[in-house]
Task: structure prediction
Amino acid sequence: MTLLQVDNLGRRYGGLHALQGVTLAVPVGARHGIIGPNGAGKSTLLNLIAGTVRPSTGTIVFDGKDLARLGPAARARRGIGRTWQHPAVFRRLTVTANVTLAVTRHALRAPARRPAVAARVQEVLERTGLTEHAAVPAGQLPYGLQRLLEFAVMLAAGPRLLLLDEPSAGLDPEETARLRAAVGALPEDVTTLLIDHNLDLVWSVCDTVTVLAQGRHLITGAPDAVRADESVRAAYLNVPAVPSAAARPVRTGRPLLRVTGLRAGYHGADVLSELELEIAEGDLVAVLGRNGAGKTTLLNALTGLVPTKPPTRIELDGTVLPPGRPHRVARAGVAIVPQGRRLFALTVAEHLEIAEATARRGDVYWTRAKVLELLPALAGRLSHHATRLSGGEQQMLALARALLTNPRLLILDEPSEGLAPAVVAHLATTLGVIASSGVTVLMAEQNLDLALRVTDRVLVLAEGRIALRSPVASLDRDRLHELVGA
Amino acid sequence: MDQLTTYAVTSLDGVAFGLLLFTVGAGLALIFGVMDIMNLAHGTLYLVGAYVAATLSGGGLLALGVALAVGLAVGAGGGAALSFVLRPLGREGSHLDEALVTLGIAFIAADGMTAAFGAAPMQTHVPTALEGSISLGIHAYPVYRLVFIGVAALVAVLLHVAVRRSTPGKMLRATISDPDMAAASGIDTGRVRTAALAVGGALAVGAGVLGAPLLGPGPGVDNTVLVLSLIVVVVGGAGSIPGTLLAALLVGQVQTIGVVTAPALAPFALFGAMLIVLVLRGRTTAVVAGRPA
Result:
C-alpha cells in the first residue's frame, strides 16, 4: 500500500528550479533513501512534504489525502515527523522534558494521561540510548547527542512517516552506529525518508534509493542497482577543477601558534585542562576525536569564542592573543569557518564586504578576485541572500568570509559536514591550494578519509587531552581508530 | 467640503506627529529592537531634547542650530553612557535587569528636570524665520510643521541608506544576526553596540529639540513618548526602517484623525489598531521558509 505519493512536484525560487517534475511512490514501511549532490533539491523535497515550503507545481498525497491545503502543524498531527539539518531542540529544557513535549494525545492515539506519557517517554529514551542523560538540559549535550535527542523527540510523537534530514551530519563513528541501530530498530509500519551524505549509512539502512541531481529525478531503485549506475557516478562524484595557487616558499618550520596551559569549558566544568599545543607555519593539521572530546571547544577557545581561564596563554607568532576579545584575535590573523557555518542574515556580497573591511593589515594574498576564482560557485550568487544558497555554497561562503580577513591561521570546524562527496573532494583540493598560499590550516573533522588525505599532521583529543600527535605519514592507524571509535 | 478640509489638515498634523514618533521610535528600534537592550529611559532622552530647545532656542535659526547641536551631543553622550552603565550586566543581561536600571535613571532624571524647570509645561518658540503659515491651496498651514516633515523624512531616508548600503550598516546587521560570529570575523561588537546606542540616543534627543514646538516639554511627556515609541517598535517589527516608518505614520494618524472622528473611542483606538496589525502580521509570517540544500 502506498503511504506517500508525490506527483510532478516542483519548486521555483525566482529563476532557480530547486526541484522540478519529481514523481515518487513510497509504500508503507519503506526505508527510502534520497541522495544527490548539494543543491540537488533534497531538502526542498523534504520541506515540501513537511509543509514548510509550498510547491510551485504538483501534488503530494499522504495516506490517500491531498496535503495541499494543510500547514506543517496539521501534517505533523497526521503523522509526518521531521528532523532538521541542524538540531532543533529546546536547549534550556532537560532531555526528558524535550521528549515529553512531543508526547501528545495525537502521538498516543489516546488521552495523554500522566502514566501513559511517562511510559512512552521512558520507552523512547531507552530506544535511543539517552536514558543516562535524561536530566541534562539539551543545550549542554554534545552535538551528537543533540541530534539523537532530536530523533527521540520525533519518535515520541508517534509518526507514520519520518523525514530525516542529514541525521548523521556531525556524528562521530560510534554515534553514527547508534543512529544506524535506532533507525534499524524502528517499528516496521513506520515509513522513513532519509537524506544523508554518508552513503554507507544509506546503503545499509535503505531498501530503496532515489538520486536527485539539479532538482531533477535521476533514478530510483534498489541500493545495488543505484550504486552500479553510470549516470549516478557522473552526477555525484564529478570533481570540479580548482585553480592552483602560485606555490610560495612558506614551510619555514617556525612555530606560528603556541598554546600553553589552555583551560576552557562551559558552566564551570573544564572541557580542556592544561592543554599544550604548537603548530608550525604553513602546516595543515587535523584535530580528531569523538564528539565531546573537546575539539570544538579547543577551536573556539583559540578564536576567543569560548572564554579561557588562567593559566591559558595563546601566542600567534610570538604575540599573545588577548583573552575574551575575539575581534582582536581575528584582526591578528585567526579566522574561523565554524561548525554549522553561522552565516549572517546578509547577501553573499555583503559577507565579502564586511570581511574585507575587517581584514588584517599587511600583504593581502586572498583578494576578492582570487577568492572568487577559487570558489567560482559564489561569483554567480553575489546578490543572493545566504539562506538561499545550497549547503555546499554556504560552506564556500563561510570559507570565503574567513579567507578575505587575510588570516595567517585558518581554523575549520567540521567543514565537510552536510556536503556531498564531490563537494568534499573539491573542498580537499581547495584547502590544499589555501595551504600552499602560506595560510596555516587547523581543522576538526569527523570524516577521517578527508582529514588524512588533506592534512600532514594529526592531533587526537580524548577527554580534553591530546592523546596522540603524529605526522600523517607515520600514523599508528590502529591507535587512531581505537581513540576515535571508528 | 469644509469638513473634508479639516480632515486633510488633521491628517497632515498626523503625518507630522507620525514622523516625530518615527524619529524617536527609530532610535528605540536601534537600541531595543536591534541591540536587544531594554531602554526605558528613551522618553527621558526626548524630554531632555525638548527642554534644551525650550531653553536655548527662540528667535533665530542659529539658536535652533545651537540647540540641535547641543541636543545631538547630549543624546550621543547619553546613549554611550547608557552602554557604559549597562556593561556590568553583560551582553546576555536580562531585560528585567536592564529595565530596572534604565527605569531608575528615568525616574531620577524626570525628578531632576521637574526641579530645574518647574512643574508647568514650557512654551517653545519657533524661530522667527519659520514662523507663520503658508497657504496650501485653500487652507493655511504652519511653516514649521512643513519644515519638520521635510527634515524627518530626510532622516528616514538617510537612516535607511546607512543601514542597508554602508559598510558600518552591514556590520551592524551582521552583529544583530550573530554577535559571536561577528566578533570572530573581526568586527568590534562592543563598539557597534556603543555606536548603536549613541545614534539611538541622538535620534531621541534630536527629535526632542526639533519636536518641542509640536509636543512641548513638561512632566509626564517622557512617559507619553516612551509608550508611543514602544508601540511603534512593536507594530513596526524592530529591525526595519521602513517598518518603523509605516508604524509611526499609522500611530500618528490614529492619534489625530481618530481623536477627531471618534472622540469616545480615542483611548482604545491605538491599541485596537495595534491588535489588528499584530494579528495580521502573525498570520503572514507563520510559515517558516525552509532552505534549499
